[in-house]
Amino acid sequence: MGPLLLFPDPPPPELAQALDLGGHAWKGVDGPGAAADEPDGGWSGAIVSADEQPEAAFALCRALRKRDVPLEPLLLLVTGAQLNELNLRDDLYDDFCLAPVRQPELVARLKHLFWRSGRGTRPELVEYGPLVLNLETYQAAISGRPLDLTYMEYELLKFLSSNPGKVFTRETLLSRVWGYDYYGGARTVDVHVRRLRAKLSEEHAPLIQTVRSVGYRFGEARWSV
Amino acid sequence: MMTATPTEGDDMERQQDYVLRTVEERGIRFVQLWFTDVLGAPKTFAITPAELENALVEGMTFDGSAIDGLSRVQESDVLALPDPKTFQILPLGGSGSDPTARVFCDITDLDGAPHKGDPRNVLRRNLDRAKERGYTFYAAPEVEWFYFADDDPSSTPKPLDQGGYFALTVADLPTDMRRQTVLTLEDMGVPVEYSQHEDAPSQHEIDLRHTDALTMADTVMTLRLMVKEIAMERGAYATFMPKPIAGVQGSGMHTHFSLFEGDVNAFHDPGDEHGLSKVAKGFIAGLLHHAPEITAVTNQWVNSYKRLVVGYEAPVHVAWARNNGSAVVNVPRSKRGRAESTRIEYRAPDPACNPYLTFAVVLAAGLAGIEEGYELPPETQANLHRMTPQDLEAQGIRALPGNLNDAIDVMERSDLVAEALGEHVFEWFIRNKRSEWSDYKTQVSQFELDRYLSAL
User: InterPro entries recorded for this chain (chain A) (predicted)?
Assistant: First the structure.
């Protein structure tokens, strides 16, 4: 995977530092011309700071997005006073971050952006024993048998099987998988786990373990005794 | 519901994407759009995958005037808007048939506003009220039905077995059909708690594990369809008619209800002698106070009242008790004393009710009890079926309405039911049931011929 494109060149020092600490390779560019000169492996994404040269920054964003294969993810850094500039430019960036950047926020946003755009830490397939999830097609199968899942069952199974061995509380699952307040409240998680187990069939139902008075775990515990 | 936040909008898009990709990947040929009329009858029309994307975003227009309670003639067109969370591939159908999926729909007016005659919207509205107060409403019904050889009304229904309560019958057709139903439901993600042969010949029961009331109402619709479809495939007939055979038990839909505040069962109080919280007591008091008013909804047919008679384990009197099947509100002992399983059981509903409206009025009655602080009457210790009318009166125990006409009379005066159902459904329902009663009243029954023809 190639480095991240950074604008301007040199980038703001706090940005460079945050990326270095986060373990991200990067390369600074000073405009669309330099951006066209792609490094080996291509750009893995871009962080464009509009703080000092807003017009050049938006022009660069537009150039990156209007390529045959638009570059993404693209994270835009703006100051609070520049928020108005975002109007009608939603197509130019995937997310934005207020400058000056705070390192934890930047790292969290990058991680999320990579996950969303299907690169970096997100694999196409999640496999665990006989279970396979294809994240592109939203299909799940156990021992080759397709599972007829509802959307939320699929999302829950995806989350659990992407994090095998970890114990999650109901609240964590609710906030990470459902993400917003749902009729069911935290009990919803139990209901969906029961449905998933029913669909996995008796043989594979133990893939989802109940951890007494804590929550649920997918697969074997990391610290098996 | 209409003013979705950006997060919900994104989520909705992903849900729609999930449905579209699944239809494509799994080679689904037809998607059935399911919804329910005011009387609880399942309605559907099928669309092809090509129409699905548009249906998910904009809804499908159809003429609602043909659907009971849905529309007035001058504004007959309505929209069916699929709820992508309920998308499910149907496990039924032999090898030769086209792969089919179903999705439940909300019915809206052409401008996108929830339709007042859509039972799913009625329940949603009541659940929203509970949610505003921090409650999630759970339901777990026990659904009973009969298998018969056919649905020919000209003769007495013919049971397919003579088994009794919990009977272990060997490889007979009804037991096989029930087993197939349980497996099919599990394939559809409906966890079944128990299934058993019930008391009467050819009577069977499936108990569902609790879930939020909206999902459960959808599930009851699914269950009724699956039970009937599987029976039909085997050349038999399944009916949820409350009392198909005189002299044996009818079919009920006893339903367990609880309110949760987040992860905490709001019905439980470890400090109370019986583990019941103030919320639970208020809920029971509300349910008892309004029980006669909501009976027309929970027991909506002329035939429903043939079940609500003394002598067949069906409730007749408005009272509550612990572990006492003769009271309309029963408080079961929680399993292994687990706080989270504290719940109350309402024993009036029958399986021919509209589950959306039934859950809506039960919730409204319970919430009224909590909010208004109704006093919970003392628990009934005795078997109510054995008490004399004088005893009942002395203890202030009322009876449920004895027939549909009485039930409608009580309901018509109920502000609570009017508010819970909304004026549109309330008014339509009363008119429809008045008409059913007047049709019934003009009949001359076999009972009268047998009893009077030669004697008078």
Answer: OmpR/PhoB-type_DNA-bd (IPR001867), Sig_transdc_resp-reg_C-effctor (IPR016032), WalR-like (IPR039420), WH-like_DNA-bd_sf (IPR036388)
* CATH number, residue B423: 3.30.590.10
In this structure, which amino acid lies at residue B360?
A
Q: Is residue B418 part of a domain?
A: yes
CA–CA min distance A137, chain B (Å): 6
**Minimum mean pLDDT among A32-36, A85-89, B138-142: which range?**
A32-36
CB burial class (10 A; 0-12, 13-18, 19+) of residue B318? buried
* B55 & B173 share domain: no
Q: Distances in Å between the alpha carbon of B42 and those of A101, A218, B73, B125, B225?
A: 56, 37, 21, 20, 8
| pTM exceeds cut of 0.90 | no
* Average pLDDT score, chain A: 83
Residues B231 and B292 in one domain: yes
List B residues 250-309 in contact with A (Cβ-Cβ < 8 A): 260-263
Cis omega (within 30 of 0) for bond into A73: yes
Partner A contacted by B210 (CB < 8 A): yes
Question: Sorting pLDDT into bands at 50, 70 and 90, what band is B169?
Answer: low
Give residue B318's pLDDT band: very low, low, confident or very high (50, 70, 90). Answer: very high
- Residue A150 to chain B, least CA–CA distance (Å): 6
Nearest to A148 among B19, B187, B215 (CB): B187
Residue among B100, B215, B267, B363 with most chain A CBs within 10 A, to mutate: B215
